[in-house]
Each structure stands twice: as C-alpha cells, then as structure tokens.
Amino acid sequence: MSALLARLDRWLDAAARRPLLALALLVGVLTLPSLAARDVWANDEVRHADALRGVLSGEHAVVLHLGGMPYGDKPPMWFWIVAGVERATGLPVPSAFFLASALGALAFAAVTWALARRLAGEDRRTSLVAALLALGTPTTVLLAQTTRMDLVFAALIVAAQMALYAAWTRPAPNRWPLVAAVLATLGAGVKGPLALGLPVVSALAWLGWTGRLRRLLCRDVALAVVWVLAVTAGYGLLVVRAEGEAFVRDLLTNQVWRRAAAAGGHALPFWFYAAVLPVVALPWSIVLVGLPWSRLRSTLSEAYARRHVGAGPGAYLALSAVSGFLLLSALSGKFFIYLAPIIPPLAVLGARALRDMDPAACARGFTSVGLSCLGLAVAVACLPLVLPHLPLVGSWPIEVRGLLPLAGALAATALAVLAVRKAPGLTVAAVTALGLVLSLAVAARFVAGSLDPVMSPRASAEEIRSYADRGYVPLVFRTYPGVYAWHAGGPLPETNDVAALERHVATPGPVVVAMPRKYWDRHQALLTSLHVVSERWIAGETLHVVAVRDAVPPTPTGEPSPHR
After folding, report:
1. I need a labelling partner for 275 at 20 to 30 A (CA). Which of 187, 500, 502, 512 fits?
2. What contacts 7, CB < 8 A, 6 or more positions away?
3. Which residues on neighbouring strands pair with residue 544, listed in sequence order?
4. Please, what are the averages of pLDDT over each run of 10 residues along the chain (564 residues)?
C-alpha cells in the first residue's frame, strides 16, 4: 500500500507541475469520445441548435431567432463561439456544440485553478485539487456534455471576480476594474446580466466587510462603469436596428425582469438552493460534513474582528460564494445548474479544508464516498431488471445500453477510493475526482446514445417535414416552442390556441398535425378526420403523436364546418 501511495504522490506532483495540461487531458477523456455519441435532445438543446442556424447563415447574428421569430431568451455570444468551433473544425452542429462545451469545461477548471493559485496563493497540489473538485461534480460533468453555455458564463464571472480582488488589493487607481468590466460584459454577452450582478455583489460584500466602500468612488471604477454603459448602449442600438424598439421593450420586461421576479416554471422559493447545494456539491459534501463546524462561530467572530487588517483571499472567496448564493436565491427563477458560478470559490475553500482536515475524519468521509459509489454501482447494475417496471421508463420502446460498463467504472472508483481512503485528503480527493469523471465519461459515451429515440425529436420532425414537402399543411399544437424546427430544417407553424387548431383541421386539403398524446385524447371530437401515423416519446417524458388527414372537399359557403 505504501508503494501505491508513493506512486500516487508522484503522479499528483507531476500533474500539479503541469496543471493546465493535466486538466486538458482529463477534460479530453471526459468529452472527446462522446462528441458524436448522441443527437441534440429536447427541449433546450434543439432550440439552441435552431438558434445557431441563423448565426451560421449570418442572417441573425445580433438577435437570435427561434422558429422563425426573434428569440430574446439568450444573448448571441455563446452561439458565435459555437459557430467559430463549427467553422474551424468542420464538425456537424451537435458535435460542434459539444466541443464548445468541452472547451468551456476546460476554461471552468482552469479558472478554478487560477483562483486557488493566483488569487489565494495556494500551493500547486491544493490548486490542482481545487480544479478537480470543481470538475468532478456531476453538475459540471453534465454541463460539459450539453449545448449549454453555463460553464463559459461561470468562468468569465469568476475571472471578473479575480480582477476585482486585484483591484481592491492594489493602490488606486489601477487597470483591474476595467479588466473586470470587460470580462463581465463578455459574460453578459454569453448568458445575461447576472455576469455583471455577481461580481458587483462580491465587490460590495468585500468592500463592505473591510470598511472600504468609498473605494467605489475612485476614477478607475468610474471608467469601468462607463465601459459597461457604453457596451450596453452599443449592443442596444444594434438590437434596435435589427428588431425595433418594441422588441427591446419586450426583452427588458419579459426576459430580464421576468427572470428576476417572476420566472414562470423556474420560479421557486428562496430556500431552494440551500436544499440543492449539498446535492450539487456531491460527493465532496459527504466528506466536508466531517469538518469541525462547532468552531464556525468563533472563526467568524475572529474573522470579523480582524476584517480591517487581516481580511485575506480566503475571506474574499467566502464572501464571493455567500453573496453570490444570496443573490441567486433572491431571484425568482431557479435551476440547479445556475449555481455553477459559485462552484469555483467553494472548490478552492473545499480543497483548503481537505488539506487541513483531521485525517481520521477525512478517512471516514471518503469511506462513506467509496461505499456510496459501490452502492450506486450495484444499483446501476440492477437497473436492466428494474427499468421495464418503472411507470415512465417502462413504456419506452428502447433498451438502455451501457449500464454494465458504467456500473463497472463506478465499482472501480469505489474500490480505488476505499483502498486509499487513509491517504492525505488531497490525494484521496484527486483519486475520487478522477474516478467520477471517468465513470461519467463512460455514461456519456455508452448510455446517452441509446436514449436518442426517446429524447430527440428528430424522427417526428423529419416525418412532419416529409409530409409538408408532399403538400400537407403542418401545425404543431401545445408543444414546447421550437422543438421540431432544427430537425425539420426550418420553422413549423405552432399554436396553443384550440380555435386555431379547429380552423386548421377545417382547412381543405391535406394536413399534418403534431401534439402531445394527452391533447390528442382531449380533443378527439375535433380531430375525427385525422388518423395517427406515429407515436413517439420526446424528452423522455411526453408521448407525442403525428396525425394526418388527406384532402377533403371545401365547405360550401354559408354552411357550418362539419368539424364544428
């Protein structure tokens, strides 16, 4: 065992000397084998692909379009990045999206390393393990395998927070507030104004904690504010030129304000993230529960007493995480992946805690992690026996493949963690992170592709388009907007209005209609002239039908429609 631990130490030291290379190799192992493993899935992924279409053609590079209509839900910069990847590599759109997300994961891990090494001044090993902690959460791995922009968004936010710390710890004025403003506006171009909000609240928290709020009145901060206002105004003018003032007003009210105060399906209570964060932080939350939390009150009291003279990078990391957490909790719209920007500071604090943690408590925590992975491996191995009997999954007309390789990878991870659980905390954490990343890479490569028939709308979209090409008039009813557009090769008419569906059915000539099965059953009296030609799952949770009707003679003038 001592020989194994010595070898692990040498490997970890070698990786710590070349951290970016080590992280690039790990991200490559995680993402590259699965670039072409699956299709884009409903609902958001196919919408992102359709929005990318206008960027690739150059027609809608300033304001994205979805289903042929302006799409203010996302800014365009992430799609510019994906378009650049597509043009540089020649990869098809799903693979180009996934490669861009892989690069985002590398940026996310690298900025976490920089946060530990450059801002907090940690040693090489602690800094590398901090990056591994950030990369080794299921949330990060999930985002690295999708079309979402959250990892690039989070990396830019954390980089802006690092620049602000440099600004506050150097004589004023200096260039760092402007650097932070540039990074934050890039983040806003990737996903939205939270890229400005999170660095601002971290600045307010830090300067308020240290009693230096007057620092915000310096001219370098004013220059940063001017930059943000100028970029915002410049982009606003481009948007007005592209889509008109009415679109901008709708964007501000229905996107910015609605997401902050009334986010519809994502609206959740203030305490939601407090309940979700321990899950998002798995498996590290299992280990860190062994910290001496009884000393927390005295530690905070001492930190507060020394805030004017002894507030260092650790306090800045903690304040950035806490202030960001509170801001995210105050917003109405909540989703677990929105926590990505606070993962890096928490990862650095977690790596520091593991380094200094009592060895016995650390060993107990990693024993729990190892046993949890072993239990998960057994559960995954038994899934083929259980899946046919689950209420939803049992109705899927597919076989979920790759479960046994995934179970094997999880079991190997469990055994590796249990074998080295008494080693120093940073070493065991590195082994755990590596095992989990490799296990989830197996899932992405072998399991995800088998889910295409129930997750992707490709088959239904291509079927609708084939009928449309033969003269059938299409309509999509009560379906998530834009779900079919990418695979159908262009937008399809959509409605949520029953009266519009009735008029469509009454139209002379052949028609094709797509809708969830529950609405087909609900409006049977209206749809008697149509017959179902296919029935498929989309997004793994909703059964959708495609129904057609051949030509019918027009209704004589003055007589009621037979479908009324």
Report:
1. 187
2. none
3. 516, 536
4. 77 91 93 90 90 89 86 90 94 93 96 94 93 92 92 97 95 94 96 94 93 93 96 91 79 63 63 92 88 64 60 87 94 89 95 90 93 95 89 86 94 94 92 92 91 94 94 94 91 93 90 95 92 92 91 46 35
Domain limits for position 438: 360-452
Residue 560 lies in a domain: no
Q: How many CB atoms lie within 10 A of CB 379?
A: 12
Token pair for 92: 């098809």
Other Cβ atoms within 10 Å of 13 Cβ, number = 12
In this structure, are 469 and 479 located in the same domain? yes
Nearest to 518 by CA among 549, 543, 496, 548: 543
Distances 500 to 198, 527, 528, 545 between C-alpha atoms, Å: 44, 13, 16, 18
Q: Between vectors from CA 139 to CA 85 and to CA 392, what angle results, nearest 5°?
A: 105
Residue 218 — left, alpha, or beta (φ > 0 → left; ψ -120 to 50 → alpha)?
Answer: beta
Within 90-191, residue ranges assigned H as helices are: 93-114, 124-135, 138-143, 150-168, 176-190
The residue assigned the tokens 């989309």 is 538
- 240 plus 305 within the same structural domain: yes
Which tokens sit at 328?
Answer: 């995210």
In a domain, 554, yes or no: no
Tell me if residue 319 falls in helix, strand or coil. Answer: helix
Domain boundary among 359, 393, 423: 359
Beta strands 542-549 and 473-477: pairing type? unpaired
Residues 6 or more apart from 359 whose CB is under 8 A from it? 422, 424, 425
Sheet holding 531-538, edge to edge: 494-495, 473-477, 511-516, 542-549, 531-538
